[in-house]
Amino acid sequence: MIIKRIIPCLLLRNKGLVKTVKFKDSVYIGDPINAVRIFNEKEVDELIFLDIDATHEKKDPPLDLIRKLATECFMPFSYGGGINSISQIEEIIKSGAEKIIINSSAWRKKNFVAEAVNRFGSSTIVVSMDVKKRFTGSYSVYVEGGRTDTGKEPVHYAREMEKYGAGEIFINSIDRDGTMAGYDLKLIRSVADAVKLPVIACGGAGSLDDIKLAVTEGGASAAAAGSFFVFHGKRRAVLITYPSHTEINNLFN
Question: Which of the following is catalytic: 51, 130, 177, 210?
Answer without folding.
Answer: 130
